Every structure is written in C-alpha cells, then in structure tokens.
Q: What sequence folds into this?
C-alpha cells in the first residue's frame, strides 16, 4: 500500500493551501458577515484558472486527478465555505453535463466562460417536494416544435439567483418516476426563466441560494443534455460518487479550519496560570478530533483513489460523505467548547464554523438516505 | 538579460520547532516555504522580464531534495528554469560556504543581474547575498525597495536606510538583496502551477562546479554550533491597579521606572 502523494500532488497541495491562505482566509469572516455574493474575491480567485480544475488541458482546464480535486475542495472550504460552494458549483455539478453532452456552440457560449469565472453556473435538482427523492420531480419538459417547453420551480439552488445558466432536471413523464428524468440547459435571459425568493441561510453565507422559476420556458432541441431520453438518472449516477466525496472533503476542510483555530487558542489561552492546552481534558479533545479527522481523510482519499482508478466507489463515497460530515460537526462543537463563551459571539470565528458545518448534512444525500443505501447495498435483495 | 535568483527554503513560521536532546540540532515540523524575502526577488525578476522580454530567469537554491518544492513555486510564479544545488552529504549551514557554492553556480551560468532576499527568516544571518557579490567581485545593494533597470548596463535602485532611503545608480552586473515593500509577490496562475508540476528540475552536485569538496564539506566550516537555546518564556502580564485613571498612570510610570527600568 502506498499512501504517499506524488511530488506533483504534494506541490499542488502546497500551492492551493498558500493561495487560500493569501486570498480567501483573510476575507472569510467578512464574506460571512455581509452574506452577499463576494464578487471581488470571486474575480480575484477565479482569474487564477482553478475553475477548469477537472477538465482537459486542451479546453483550458487542468486535468487534475481526483486526489488533487479533493485537496482543492478541502482547502477552499477551509478558507470559506461560502465562497467554496459557488466555486465548486462552477467546477463540478454546474458544468458537468455541458462538458459531457453540450454542443460546441454551448461549450463556447457557456462552459468555457464558466471555466474562466466569467459566467456563473448552477445545477437544479431540488424542488419543494423532492430532494433525495428525485423520482418525485415535478418540473416538466415537453417537446415543442424544434425544442423543449419547461415548466416548474426549483428550490435551494446554489448560485441560482446570480447564475448565467443552469442545468435543469425535468421529467418528460411524471408517471415514469426516475425513468422520466432528463437534463436541459437554460440560459439567463430566456423568456419565462427568472429567479424567485432568496433563501437566508444559517451558514454558508456568501453563497447566494434560492428559487428558480421556469414559466413556459422554451429552449432549442440542442439544450437537451444527454445521449438518450430517459437516462438522466443514470448520468447522475456517474457523478454521484464524486459529489459525495467532494461534500466529505468540504466537511473535512471546515473541520480543519476549526481545528486550527482551536489549536491556536489552546496554546495561547491562559487559565490557572498556564495555557489551557496543558490540561488533560483539553488534550483529550485534540486527540479525538485528530483521530476522527484522520479517519475521515483516509476514507475520502481512498474513495478518490478508487474513483481515479475506475473502481467501484459507491459505498465508500457514501460512507466518507456521511462520516466526514459527522466528524466536522464533532470538531466544530469541540471548538466552541475549547473557545469558551467567546465562541458564542459573532465577533469571533467559532460560531461561523459551527453554523457552516450544518449545511453539509444535506448536500450529497442526507445521512438517513445514505445509511439506507449503504445497508441495502451491503445486505442485498432478500 | 540573464537574471539569476537565489532562494532558500525555510521552515514555515508556524512550523513546530523543537531543540533535540543533544541541543545542537533541531527537529522541525514538515512545513516549509520559500523564504519570505526571496519571494520579492522572484517577483522582481519576473517584472524585469515583463519589461525586457528576451530575459532568461534562472532560480537556484542550495538545499535538500525537499527544496525542489520552493523551486517549483518560483516556476509557478513565472521564472523560466530552476536548479537544485544538492546538499546531500554536504550538510553545511555556513553562509561563507553557501556563498562560495552559489557564486560558482553564477560564474558557470553567466548573469547580468542577481537577486536574492535580504536575509533568510530561519537563521536571520543576512550574509549570503553580500558574500556572493564579493566572490563574484561585483557591486551589491542591500534591502532594495525599488529597482529600475534602465538598460542592460545600468540600474537605479532605492535602498532602505535607518529613517530614510538611499538612491543608487549601479553598473551591471550587480547583485541586489530584496526587502519587503519592493513589490507584491503574485499568486501563481493555474497555467504556471501546471508548468511547475511538469518541470524537470536538475539536481547539481556542487562539486561539479569546479569546487574542491574539502572546501565546502562540513569540516570546512568555520562555524560550530555549540547549542540551541529556546527563547525565554514571557513573564506574566502585570495588571496596573488604581481607583482612578490618574492613579493608574502613576502606578504605570512607577512600574516602568522601577521594575521594567524602561524610563
């Protein structure tokens, strides 16, 4: 077994860590407090070229392997999960279907500008009555002349209110459940496409999340993103493990940021004439946090390694997402205990980590759904 | 223009550093960076190249194979090529010996201008730059805050003095050590990062530069570390008592005079 990063991966980790420390960490508290999309930080960060992380070099991307991708997701989330959510949406879910199925014209118009940070992408799955239960999707698409007519409302859309284009999940036939699902591209400015209510969130502030409305929206035929009708859910399956591992890596990033704050505080905070890091009950907290974070890290990067090598990563990806998120919740909780009453004040950072960690419970599958999936897969059909 | 930048990889300011039981060596956590002041040197070289497009920037360090990471960072920022002067079996921190090795490299490669940080933030010696210039018999200007390359023969530089600045004109070739304030080092673009990841960085045996091994090995050093000592732990914070602000000020002045002996 070889757990060593290659020299290239090690170097990439170093560079992205330094970049996040320099450009994002100093702004993270402000991003959270303002709770507005951080356009300046976005421009400064995205001009570096990281939004093309996963895509081939010939398209202006970096062709990073899955280990590097996880490193990136972890580090940017350590800096500011509010910014990270928007960045990762452009990198992964918001552009995946365009890269895979988009025509050259669509790629030129949407994908490449999104890789440069000039356009903001998003992906629309969730509705008021469907999230994990995709089969309950009520947004419809129907053939209309040379194109498609889309109707419905999407909820909880990351980047939704500020997006330049979105990949929408819609059903051609609600009676077919999962087999009726397909993806379509809708661009800003298309008649009938508008953003609705913005959701004011407990955490991950800075990312603009909200409702998108498709009121009799017509798009040309080429905006269908797929090879075959009715295969949408299979295409989701192709990206699901990466999304789950990514969510785990984001959780690990938040945990790492919180752990670093706790460590710094435990070294400096004096109580009873000595740094509190000298007390056994505080040391126990660090021993536990580090143990759990290392376990989560091993799961996430093992999953990424499986994915990179084309092996089955379904169970480990679900487990890693679930475990890393639970570890994150544990670490942010310990931070608030180590930090004492100041952790309860908006002026200090612990409360931000505490709030941010909650959101990752839901993205990439709730833990109730994931546990059911893992158990069902392990036991098999009886 | 042929520009050489000498850099050093140093322990991160937040790395855990422990003095080993022999008191003559250190145990350093595996967190390293390019020396803070060297980043200004790399950035300045790139800016000169942006003005004089046909320039070639070579970055070089004397260190372990781990230091290749710092060289890659320089490539990611925009330098053209990098060399490691491999110190395997030549573990030596003596600035005079390092300056001898670096100057031999510069002689072999040729140069118009050399840049390096004013000092390394680990040993804080601030010796190597000036010593390299002496070995090469070229002028050197320390702690520059501004550098204007007029042409391939002449430069104008501003250097930091106590409470002011000195404006100097110098003939090339010359060596400059860089100070905070000279520029704002850039964050690498991903295209630079990719170039750096793929870059093949040759490791050179310093003895291949025409130096006799006995002149640069550990025994050649004129410096012997007797021991490392940790900094004194800070005394506890003293709270100045007093009923009114006036009383507190009186107590403070008294403490500054009698206890701290600062007044």
A:
């Amino acid at each position: 077994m070889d757990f060593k990063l290659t020299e290239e991966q090690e170097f990439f980790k170093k560079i992205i860590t330094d970049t996040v420390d320099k450009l994002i960490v100093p702004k993270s508290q402000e991003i959270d407090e303002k709770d507005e999309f951080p356009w300046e930080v976005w421009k400064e960060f995205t001009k570096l070229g990281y939004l093309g992380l996963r895509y081939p070099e010939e398209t202006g991307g970096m062709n990073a392997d899955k280990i590097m991708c996880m490193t990136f997701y972890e580090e940017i989330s350590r800096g500011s999960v509010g910014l990270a959510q928007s960045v990762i949406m452009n990198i992964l879910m918001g552009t995946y279907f365009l890269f895979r199925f988009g025509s050259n014209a669509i790629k030129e118009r949407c994908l490449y500008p999104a890789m440069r940070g000039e356009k903001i992408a998003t992906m629309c799955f969730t509705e008021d009555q469907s999230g994990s239960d995709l089969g309950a999707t009520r947004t419809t698409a129907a053939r209309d002349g040379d194109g498609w007519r889309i109707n419905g409302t999407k909820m909880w859309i990351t980047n939704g209110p500020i997006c330049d284009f979105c990949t929408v999940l819609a059903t051609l036939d609600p009676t077919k459940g999962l087999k009726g699902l397909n993806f379509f591209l809708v661009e800003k400015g298309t008649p009938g496409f508008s953003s609705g209510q913005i959701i004011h969130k407990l955490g991950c502030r800075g990312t603009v999340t909200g409702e998108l409305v498709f009121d009799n929206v017509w798009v040309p035929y080429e905006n269908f993103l797929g090879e075959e009708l009715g295969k949408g859910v299979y295409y989701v399956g192709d990206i699901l493990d990466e999304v789950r591992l990514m969510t785990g890596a984001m959780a690990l990033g938040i945990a790492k940021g919180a752990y670093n704050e706790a460590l710094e505080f435990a070294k400096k905070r004096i109580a009873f004439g000595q740094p509190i890091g000298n007390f056994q009950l505080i040391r126990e907290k660090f021993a536990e946090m580090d143990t759990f974070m290392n376990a989560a890290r091993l799961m996430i990067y093992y999953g990424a390694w499986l994915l990179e090598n084309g092996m089955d990563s379904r169970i480990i990806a679900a487990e890693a997402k679930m475990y890393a998120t639970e570890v994150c919740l544990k670490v942010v909780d310990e931070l608030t205990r180590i930090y004492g009453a100041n952790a309860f004040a908006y002026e200090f950072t612990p409360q931000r980590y505490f709030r941010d960690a909650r959101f990752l419970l839901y993205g990439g599958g709730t833990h109730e759904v994931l546990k059911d999936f893992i158990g069902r897969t392990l036991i098999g059909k009886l | 223009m042929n520009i050489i930048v000498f850099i050093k990889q140093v322990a991160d300011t937040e790395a855990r550093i422990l003095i080993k039981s022999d008191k003559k060596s250190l145990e350093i956590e595996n967190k390293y960076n390019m020396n803070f002041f060297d980043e200004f040197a790399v950035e300045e070289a790139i800016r000169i190249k942006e003005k004089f497009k046909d320039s070639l920037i070579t970055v070089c360090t004397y260190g372990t194979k781990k230091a290749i990471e710092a060289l890659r960072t320089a490539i990611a920022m925009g330098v053209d090529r990098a060399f490691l002067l491999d110190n395997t079996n030549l573990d030596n921190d003596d600035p005079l010996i390092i300056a001898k090795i670096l100057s031999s490299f510069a002689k072999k490669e040729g140069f118009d201008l050399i840049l390096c940080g004013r000092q390394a933030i680990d040993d804080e010696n601030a010796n190597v730059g000036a010593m390299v210039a002496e070995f090469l018999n070229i002028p050197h200007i320390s702690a520059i805050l501004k550098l204007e390359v007029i042409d391939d023969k002449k430069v104008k530089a501003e250097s930091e003095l106590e409470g002011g600045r000195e404006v100097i004109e110098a003939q090339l070739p010359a060596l400059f050590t860089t100070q905070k304030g000279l520029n704002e080092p850039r964050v690498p673009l991903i295209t630079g990062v990719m170039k750096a990841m793929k870059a093949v960085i040759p490791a050179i045996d310093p003895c291949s530069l025409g130096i006799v091994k006995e002149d640069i090995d550990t025994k050649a050093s004129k410096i012997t570390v007797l021991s490392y000592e940790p900094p004194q732990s800070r005394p506890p914070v003293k709270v100045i008592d007093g009923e009114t602000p006036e009383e507190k000020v009186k107590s403070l002045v008294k403490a500054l005079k009698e206890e701290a002996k600062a007044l």
Summary: Chain B has two domains: 2-220, 232-263. Helices of chain B lie at 36-51, 68-77, 95-109, 128-136, 190-198, 213-216, 245-258.
